[in-house]
Design goal:
Number of strands: 0
Radius of gyration: 18 Å
Shape: globular
Largest sheet: none
CATH topology: Tetracycline Repressor, domain 2
Low-confidence stretches: none
Strand content: under 5%
Length: 189
Amino acid sequence: MGKKGEETKQHIRKVAYGLFAEKGFKAVTMKDICEKAELSRGGLYRHYPGTEEIFEEIINEFMQKQEDEFADRIENGVPATRILEEVLSRYKSEMKDSGTSLSVAIYEYYTAEKRENNALLMRYGASKRMWQRLIAYGMERGEFRRVDAEAVYDVIVFSYQGVRMYSKMMPIDENIPERIVKQIKEMLL
């Protein structure tokens, strides 16, 4: 695929991301994406056969970006505290911004009857390994306390995703992300 084709796919994913965040997975149709992306049906179907493939690419792209970010920073010797600070700062912003949350869409996508939850479990495992690598890196460098990395990961992922999910359903106290981040830092630093 050429540069123009890849740019079109990127535009489609960006538009679809906004629709999935707004409506969830089940309510978004290829027609919605065509209209919002200002593409013909043929133009959209040339790149994607359906919403499932678009959503999968969005999730894969997000996960790969985060994995690469952690790995590159660790390999380049960036202090673990700085990596943690930057990631938690982003998480805090995301927890406060319910408009960009894909939590409901992710829930709908992975709880569909025909879908195997293997893919979600694999993504969870990849995210867990990535965080455990960062935590081990921080402990090896003496920047983090000696902790149970798996338990810390559980606190991070489930509090983050919980706030993202609840923020789609009800207003949340804007201090909640601050308190969560503070507790995570206290566990590690």
